[in-house]
Amino acid sequence: MQNEITQPGPLLDAGGRLAQVGWSRKPLLDCNLENANFYTFHALQRFRIKRWDYYAVFTPRRFFSATIADLGYAGNIFVYTLDFLTGQLHEEGLVIPLSRGIDLERNPEAGEACFSNKKASLNFTVNGGERHIDVRWPAFDQGRGIQAEVFLSTLPRHESMNITIPIGRKRFYDNTKINCMPARGFIQYGEVREELRPDTCVGSLDWGRGVWDYRSYWNWGSASGFLPNGQTIGLNLGQGFGDLRQATENAVIVNGRVHKIGLVRFDYKSGDYMKPWHFTDDESRLNLTFTPFKDRTARTNLGIIFSEVHQMFGLYNGRVILDDGSPLEIHDLIGFAEEHHARW
């Protein structure tokens, strides 16, 4: 069921169809969105193409996230942070009509994503094996302000979780997820400044491009952290979108290597998100319990654009079977699991 892409090439052929469908251990396909072909009137297509860069950083104390997104007819800029010790969560966002002033890179391994206005400045750059996240939002949290300068490293052996899947007959999703990138730099929230060290802090990336159904739904679970022996451990779990028959995004990432998992069941109670979630797969390689400790609910309603996400932060516990058949115990790994509904 899981088709691994191993050869580089274009994402879309001349007719706008996916040239290859499957998953890969690194980005191999050139995201040539200019070939998209799903409307007779070609000028309208830009309003249906979705593009985003979502970065997250896990520190011993904090979760920090910054996003630049172009949803076609509007842009979305948002930053949020959660203090694990106090439970304090604060989030702010900007809706940008027609995505004016938003630039996003063509492919996930090179280029720059940026947005700046009088309220906030976000700049993400990729140069070789290093990613630079620069965020400045002086009025964040009633003038408390937030600033981050974070450098995320990827070693040559570090693999990512990439999928290219169809959504219906004409739509598609191209996605890269990178977990457990060692982080250095700082995050300053008001008077609190955290210096980031790569032996205790890691970052992740959700890089998405594609054309979705207007009404969409998905689940996503993710975590990046450390094992007792100092190796990094990451989780990436997803369902609810597109045709997953040839590829899912499910994987366990140990010390930079992807251990691919097939279909995963999200067993949770929608509407009662603080109850434990359970994750199992179709090959009995994954058995995890996720116990939430914080509910982040974000809702946007702008008429034709609607988004409601319940992102739960909590602890993953359980066991996974790696590619070589060996079991790996996971204890109190901080991460999140979410339910997301959108009209976009």
Structure description:
By secondary structure, the chain is mainly beta. It has one domain (9-343). The protein contains one helix and 24 strands. It has one helix spanning 140-143, and strands spanning 9-10, 22-24, 29-30, 49-58, 62-70, 74-83, 89-97, 111-116, 121-127, 130-137, 146-153, 161-167, 171-189, 192-196, 202-211, 215-226, 232-239, 251-254, 257-260, 264-267, 277-281, 286-301, 306-321, 327-343. Strands 2, 4, 5, 6, 7, 8, 9, 10, 11, 12, 13, 14 and 15 form a 13-stranded antiparallel beta sheet that branches. The chain has a nine-stranded antiparallel beta sheet with strand order 19-18-17-16-24-23-22-21-20, with no helix packed on it. A hairpin with a 5-residue loop joins strand 16 and strand 17. The longest helix is centred in the middle third of the chain and has 4 residues, at 140-143. It is globular and about 55 Å long. It starts with 8 loop residues before the first strand and ends with a strand. The model has no long low-confidence stretch (mean pLDDT 95).
Report the C-alpha radius of gyration, rounded: 19 Å
Count of beta strands: 24
Q: Helix share of residues?
A: under 10%
Oligomer: single chain
Q: State the secondary-structure class.
A: mainly beta
For the sheet with most strands, the description reads: 13 strands, antiparallel
Taken in chain order, the helices and strands follow as: EEEEEEEEEEHEEEEEEEEEEEEEE
The low-confidence parts are none
- State the end-to-end CA separation: 30 Å
Binned strand content: over 45%
- Global shape: globular
Q: What number of domains?
A: 1
The overall pLDDT, averaged over residues, is 95
Supply the number of helical segments.
1
